[in-house]
């Protein structure tokens, strides 16, 4: 039994070392990826379902890895956050999204918004506001078309600081959305203090809403709460027509999900813009 125990320990140690090696390797690859410009942004349509109109895009990062192919954020964002590389990667994503917004605006699509996800480290970075201002200046976008997405945990980590930062950027028109809403905190009293414009109802509610009447009541409650606070509501993860019909019944006009489009590369997003012209 003792020998066995040792074997198990050695095995565990080996796989643990392997995991560390993989992690260190991925981390140095991540660093190289910034220099080699291996990241790309995909864009997912955001719809006004009452008008059947495309109103904006959410930018979602992908890593075009030279060997592993196209990687989703779940495969590398945690490591980027842990290592601090999320600061340059996030800056790249912001700049790329703003350049794209400007390009589409110059093509005549002046009404659409661009949403960009922020990580905690980015938002907490002392240069954050300055970085956003520089990117806006450099790309020449209309700041009121830019929406930055933060989660409840980022927002509440230091509420006073959060409010200060958001207000600073609100001054020039930049808006904020509360992402994954409903998954984090039960006390929502902080909402009335937060100078945000949108809440995004987390996909997990939509997953079960068609079978579960409690979820319907939660979504209804979130929508009512948001409207009472003059916030827009976007439902995430809309996959089925039944979801859309339910949202319409609940008076939620904004939706995002595979029913309309998966996140797609720039060219495909332009096709969506083009065809939305014809609607
Ligand atoms: P998120 O901000 O909550 O983004 C929504 C995720 O749900 C996206 O996954 C999107 O592809 C997926 N999704 C959208 N509609 C549907 C649907 O109808 N059904 C299903 N099953 N999924 C749907 P993705 O692109 O893998 O991104 C995952 C997360 O990575 C994002 O979650 C966001 O937190 C993070 N992320 C993405 N891009 C960036 C970035 O540039 N910076 C930072 N800091 N985080 C990012
Ligand atoms: Ca998001
Ligand atoms: Ca979300
Ligand atoms: Ca999420």
TrEMBL record:
Domain EAL intervals: 23-277
Keywords: Coiled coil, Membrane, Transmembrane, Transmembrane helix
Protein name per the record: Diguanylate cyclase (GGDEF)-like protein
Lineage summary: Bacteria, Bacillati, Bacillota, Clostridia, Lachnospirales
